[in-house]
Design a protein that fits this description.
Two copies of one chain form a homodimer. Chain A has a domain of 178 residues: Rossmann fold, CATH 3.40.50.10950. The two termini of chain A are 32 Å apart. The radius of gyration of chain A is 20 Å and the shape is globular. The first copy, chain A, has 14 helices and eleven strands. Chain A has an eleven-stranded mixed β-sheet, with helices on both faces. By secondary structure, chain A is of the alpha/beta class. At the A-B interface, α8, α9, α10 and α11 of A face α8, α9 and α10 of B.
């Protein structure tokens, strides 16, 4: 397997991206193709013991930054590490692409410039994988599309279900819709119409769930509009950061608390590791013709390594082929009719 | 001032509701009118030292439960403590109504059976007040309406601004829209169209904010669709409960952590009190012809007392009159044309 990694992705690039790749090459034995500024990548590689590791470097003269506008960068930087990396996957010279860079740019470059959508897919979806109490679940869409339509959410359910079964090891993945209440009659028009579609579909639809269920083990796949999903994961992240910040502050406010804080530090680390998004590393962009794993901009080397592990699971699970079949089976007539091919 | 309190509201009613009312009567010196099952309320009152306190009891033969469907209970239980209490306010025999009961039922009974909407108001809004780092802000709508339209959000901005200035002590309240990114072009169609309306309105619109800003001091009023707002506050609550649960669990997992936990307990209490919704007690339902404060079902006596304090601030701030004026000024033509008077 050849996993292409964007060396210029993370906020601190190329350090964490290269180090995570070295760790992954060592641990998984898969070939890692680092794409980026060749000189900088090789300089970074020289800091690590890479002798005998299956690591290649492919030069990309340009770099996408967090400031680049997704609507523009697709056309304006054809030599970026994202373009070059995804093209390698498109041409079959790589099996997956991993980036911790600008998510919107990755989505635009994948959808409009390189990999493009799987036939029949209305809209690609960005996802996140949460893992708590030893169980993982996938949430989508978390920001690819706002103003979603019911048939898009129905496809997200198919794609999320495929991923949960093929890459997360679930059996007959339980699919739910995020709503503001589980009772019938609750939910926006979108949720109500999507529930109607899902209950007639082939997916294992277990109904509506509330935000608290995102932190429980009630469903394996939770589907939502991208605006709502984006607000939700940003809220989870903000609340977690705020609470840990307040705790840190209060635990240094007096001597008693300081001693208590020192003694309970290992316990805190265990809590933190359970809600730490870096433990997962990354989550797939679904609905495009290739495995693309998006990591957090703040990724460290461990997060990059874990994102590469996620890519490996997705390739082994043949998720692109499985999604193609799932979409075909779910609604062949509707999908060929409704596909929006505009750019 | 006469503040009417639903004695049968909280999950543990009438205990916390009555005790909180006694505390409030003692601390604020305002008359508290307890509405509920007279025998049970008086029995509960007899457990407290109420001699000389301005507390009255009004009998209500029925009770709204958390299981009651909002769409049905408005008509099916005309003798409920919510109906009786809101009617007292409607008839001028009370200045505000406080309940920790079924929020959907309170909304239906206020809007359709008793107080009704302020003329020109498209939709009433439920709000929540967050207080962090010593600053409070009001978020709305958090669940009264899904599928909101831009002109509804524009009114929420007016109502929230009035509340922030009149009851929370803000000067020229900063109003923001919740979005999935601050940049122009981000946001759902609803957010984009609402931003357009708000930038042409009289409110102090500061633009779009992200979820992390809900926990900062960037805005005084944050406006959003009720579905999104409901998901957001439930996510905040779920994340907070999950984190404190994990911390409690890990701090009892071994002796070292236990000792650390005991020593840092006061620090934790300080953290908890900063994110504890009971410190605020309740938040207003806005857009109806009367002050209505909704508390959490799990309210304890302190939360009820704080909800009564919130009601008192709202009455002193004459928020109903101020909202009426604000709505009239904001768009007199539009508001008389667009008002939906169907029930």
């Amino acid at each position: 397997m050849r996993i292409v990694v964007d060396a210029m992705g993370s906020d601190q690039n190329p350090g964490p991206d290269v180090e995570g790749s070295v760790l992954a090459a060592r641990e998984y034995g898969e070939t890692i193709v680092l794409v980026g500024d060749q000189a900088r990548v090789e300089q970074e590689l020289s800091r690590h013991a890479t002798s005998g590791l299956p690591i290649e470097v492919v030069h990309a003269p340009e770099q996408v930054t967090m400031e680049d506008k997704p609507g523009v960068v697709g056309r304006s930087k054809p030599g970026s590490s994202m373009h070059v990396g995804m093209r390698l996957v498109q041409e079959g010279r790589g099996d997956a692409f991993v980036t911790a860079g600008n998510t919107g740019a990755a989505l635009a470059i994948a959808t409009l410039q390189t990999l493009r959508r799987i036939p029949g897919v209305h809209r690609p979806a960005l996802s996140t994988i949460l893992s708590l109490h030893g169980q993982s679940m996938i949430l989508l869409d978390i920001g690819a599309s706002t103003d979603c339509r019911p048939e898009w959410l129905a496809q997200f359910a198919v794609m999320g279900g495929v991923y949960a079964e093929r890459a997360l090891g679930k059996t007959s993945a339980r699919v739910a819709l995020l709503s503001n209440g589980e009772e019938e009659g609750k939910g926006s028009t979108l949720v109500q119409e999507s529930a109607e579609l899902l209950s007639r579909s082939g997916v294992n639809f277990i109904g509506n769930v509330e935000p608290k269920d995102v932190l429980s083990n009630k469903a394996d796949v939770i589907v939502m509009d991208g605006f709502v999903g984006n607000v939700m994961i940003k809220t989870l992240e903000a609340m977690s950061r705020t609470l840990f910040g307040l705790i840190r502050q209060e635990l240094t406010s007096d001597l008693r608390s300081k001693v208590g804080g020192l003694l309970s530090r290992p316990a805190f680390r265990r809590v933190y590791s359970q809600v730490d998004p870096f433990e997962i590393g990354g989550a797939p962009m679904l609905g495009v013709n290739g495995v693309v794993i998006i990591g957090h901009g703040r990724s460290n080397a461990m997060a990059i390594k874990n994102a590469i592990r996620q890519a490996r699971s997705a390739v082994n699970g043949q998720i692109v082929e499985a999604i193609r079949e799932g979409i075909e089976q779910s609604s062949p007539a509707a999908s060929s009719r409704d596909q929006d091919t505009s750019e």
